[in-house]
Amino acid sequence: MGTINVGGKELEVDEEGYLSNLADWTPEVAEYMAKDEGQDLTENHWEVINFLREYYEEYQIAPAVRVLTKAIGKKLGKEKGNSKYLYELFPYGPGKQACKYAGLPKPTGCV
Amino acid sequence: MSDVKNFLYLNRRAPYGTVYAWESLEVVLIGAAFEQDVSLAFVDDGVYQIMKGQDTSGLGIKNFSPTYSALGDYDVQKIYVEKESLDARGLTVEDLLDLKYEDEDDDWAEKDSIKVVSAEELAKLMDESDVVLSF
């Protein structure tokens, strides 16, 4: 367990950097985590992050990457619903990295 | 894929009070993410796991029943509920979550995942599965 300091607040994270408490999330947390990994967050990144948060809100889980890919394709169009596009945005893995920025737990089925 | 096996997950306990229901659901999601052929069966108190309108606020436990609605996204399309178990508890399929999947071979039409089966039919399904995991 460690903490990250975002906007003057100490937030608890697990050993892989995922937020311990979902409720601690703010967009600044995503910015902070991305910056820490040398990544700029563009509009396209936010689309995926916001999608994940909505998915979690509805189903209470972070989707597996295959499910994420399919669902993104349905919602945002075919040109975005493929692994190439998503891996370009999140080179450490769209499931792991995007879920982390979104403040969600590591996806179920991600071993 | 050459060695896809049929997995049947048998759920027989009430959703809260033990970890079995949630553990089963997590294993199902993991198995399905690896593109195994997964089906679920709910018998005995297990039928309560997929009841509508669950509210765990008094228990201080996360209500994970919304997660069952994600099963369709994971291509889990076969969810069997034993009729005798519903009858014994005064329940009907109307009391259960409205679980759907999209049929890829039928222009993504939404279809019901839940099928009510008799104990006899369920026994046959278990017999036909490669692996039966009981929770």
Over the alpha carbons, how many angstroms does the gyration radius of chain B reach?
14 Å
What is the CATH C-level name of chain B? Alpha Beta
Distance between the termini of chain A: 20 Å
Overall tally of domains of chain B: 1
CATH homologous superfamily heading of chain B: DsrEFH-like
Based on Cα principal axes, name the global outline of chain A.
Answer: globular
**Fraction of residues in β-strands of chain A:** 5-15%
Largest sheet of chain A: 2 strands, antiparallel
Q: Most extensive interface, residues per chain?
A: A-B, 13 and 16 residues
Main sheet of chain B, how many strands, which sense, barrel? 5 strands, parallel
Give the strand order of the largest sheet of chain A, numbering strands 1, 2, ... along the chain.
1-2
CATH topology of the largest domain in chain A: Arc Repressor Mutant, subunit A
Hey, roughly how much beta strand do the residues of chain B contain?
15-25%
Going by CATH, the architecture of chain B would be 3-Layer(aba) Sandwich
Count of alpha and pi helical runs of chain A: 5
CATH superfamily of the largest domain in chain A: DsrC protein, C-terminal domain
Structure classification of chain B = alpha/beta
Give me the Rg of chain A, rounded: 13 Å
Determine the fraction of residues in helical runs of chain A and give it as a percent range. Answer: 40-55%
What is the tally of beta strands of chain A? 2
Keywords:
heterodimer; A: 111 residues; mainly alpha; Dissimilatory Siroheme-sulfite Reductase, Chain: A, domain 1; Arc Repressor Mutant, subunit A; 2 domains; two-stranded antiparallel sheet; 2 strands; 49% helix; globular; B: 135 residues; alpha/beta; Hypothetical Protein Ychn, Chain: A; 5-stranded parallel sheet; two-stranded antiparallel ribbon; 3 helices; 7 strands; DsrEFH-like (chain B); Sulphur_relay_DsrE/F-like (chain B); tRNA 2-thiouridine synthesizing protein C (chain B)
